[in-house]
Write a structure and sequence with these properties.
The protein has 271 residues and is mostly beta strands. It is built from 3 helices and 18 strands. The strands form 3 sheets. Strands 2, 4, 5, 8, 9, 10, 14, 15, 17 and 18 form a 10-stranded mixed β-sheet that branches. It has a 4-stranded antiparallel β-sheet with strand order 1-3-7-6, with no helix packed on it. Strand 6 and strand 7 form a beta hairpin. The chain is globular and about 55 Å long.
Length: 271
């Protein structure tokens, strides 16, 4: 019995280690022009970060408004024990898309831990394929990277920057400006992989304070699958801070690597 409990604890810990989602979460999603705003980089869940992200892992940080992109410098970043923080000063009114893309990293798990991680993070298609194929019970090495965005409204001028890509390997674009939405409204989005529409992708959505994510399986407020053109939509049933997220994982034929995944999140707020 004791050995079983230890094995279960180790499997859960391994799945949790692989299951950190990453979010850009500003202290406020609605700010005045020419004002300071802090954007937290959460590595864990939407409600709690477990550790800061080293600068060496960051491939790109961008801020786009009016179709123009600026690049914050390293001095604008700082860390606490659990969270990285980006300090920005807004400029002219407009809708700002703030993005960060990480460099790829490798992780190796046992077959059992890998399947537990797929189950925990809702990567259902890969888990189903491994079950159908009778995947070998050998270690699995995955190469993963994360690409995150936040949409901040500065002043009253609305621009279409939330719908424009930053050129990251995976992105979720908002086809409706969150500043135009009210609770009960519909938000359309498009998922991209390497700049192309990502059809048939499972996408999850939830809001701050929703606690449906447990140790056994991925549970979010909403789950949907994109159409062939990468689009989807959801009903935003309440005001507050929201996110959309997906993990696109595919087999690769490279020495020592079995899977590659690109994680994408976008955060926004509805008033």
């Amino acid at each position: 019995m004791k050995k079983t409990l230890i094995a279960l604890a180790l499997a859960t810990a391994a799945a949790g280690a692989a299951a950190h989602e990453t979010f850009l979460k500003p202290t406020s999603f609605y700010v005045a022009p020419n004002s300071a705003v802090v954007v937290d980089l959460l590595n864990g869940t939407f409600d709690k970060s477990e550790n800061p992200v080293p600068r060496a892992r960051m491939a790109d940080t961008s801020v786009m408004t009016g179709g123009k992109v600026t690049k914050p410098d390293a001095a604008q970043w700082s860390d606490t024990a659990t969270t990285s923080h980006l300090r920005l000063t807004t400029g002219a009114p407009g809708t700002y898309a703030i993005g960060l893309s990480s460099k790829p990293k490798l992780i190796t798990l046992s077959a059992a831990d890998f399947d537990a991680y797929l189950r925990h993070d809702g990567i259902a298609d890969v888990l189903a394929a491994r079950t159908r194929e009778g995947a070998a019970k050998t270690e699995v090495t995955e190469r993963y990277s994360k690409h995150v965005r936040a949409v901040v409204q500065v002043g009253g001028t609305l621009t279409d920057d939330a719908a424009k890509p930053l050129g990251y390997p995976a992105e979720i674009l908002l086809l409706d400006n969150p500043a135009t939405l009210k609770p009960g409204g519909t938000l359309r989005f498009r998922a991209l992989l390497r700049g192309e529409p990502l059809g048939g992708q499972l996408v999850y959505a939830s809001s701050e304070g929703f606690h449906g994510h447990d140790a056994a399986a991925h549970a979010s407020k909403l789950k949907m699958r994109t159409a062939a053109d990468g689009t989807g939509s959801l009903t935003v049933d309440r005001s507050g801070k929201w996110y959309l997220t997906f993990i696109n994982m595919r087999k690769v034929s490279e020495p020592g690597i079995q899977y590659e995944s690109n994680w994408s999140t976008v955060t926004f707020a509805v008033r």
